[in-house]
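Below: protein 1.
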Amino acid sequence: MSVLLKSPGDNIDFSMTWSNIGAATLSSVTHTVPSGLTKVSESNTTTTSTVRVSGATHGMTYTIVGTATLSTGRTLVRTFPLRVFNH
């Protein structure tokens, strides 16, 4: 699993490709971010979701949770660790 990287002052987009979903496509994706991060916006295509986040504290690792509804009606949940550092 990859770890996403962010500086505390960044207002940045993170895109995730949802693989292993067969012939299904993404109908919608909701990203949940923990306290300390702010979700600025989110969007998705049929294969990728994007979340823009701001805030965070140097040295912390946060977990972004993506909950996707597929064209088949199935629901998938994936987690994406986010490490914050000053650069």
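Below: protein 2.
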Amino acid sequence: MTPCNPKSTFLVSAFSGPPQTNLSRSYSSTTAISMASDEVQKAKEAAASNAGGDGAPPTIFDKILSGDIPANKIHDDDLCIAFRDVNPQAPVHFLVIPKNRDGLTQLSKAREDQKELLGHMMYVAQMLGKEECPGGFRVVVNDGSDGAQSVYHLHIVSAWCAEVF
């Protein structure tokens, strides 16, 4: 395993473009800022079309849960699933989502009765993280348009910046 280069950044995004084959590509800080700006713009567009909450059309994650869109699942239990991102931004990149959205479109909209589910999702993210990258991993939750959230179905993104063989 190669440690992260502090001068490069891997951006984490879910379903924001066509699949890339170069999973170990590193980005300069200028490129990273530009890409982050693009991601924020995409998130604002998603928020505008989604109204940022339930009652909106099904998200891509709902379509994965229903089986309408296939996914490379790496975990599946009563509360959540985890699957590999179709547009990985790091050598290992997966998402953990709740099976029942129940208004949990953003972390900032979580209710007290959802604490157990949120803790369970974090536990699954760390369990898979330790299995796939024992040297360390990153966990990200984007929230709202300014937080670069592009899919309004809460998801925990886990990714690593080191090569995994």
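The helical segments are 29-50, 60-66, 115-132.
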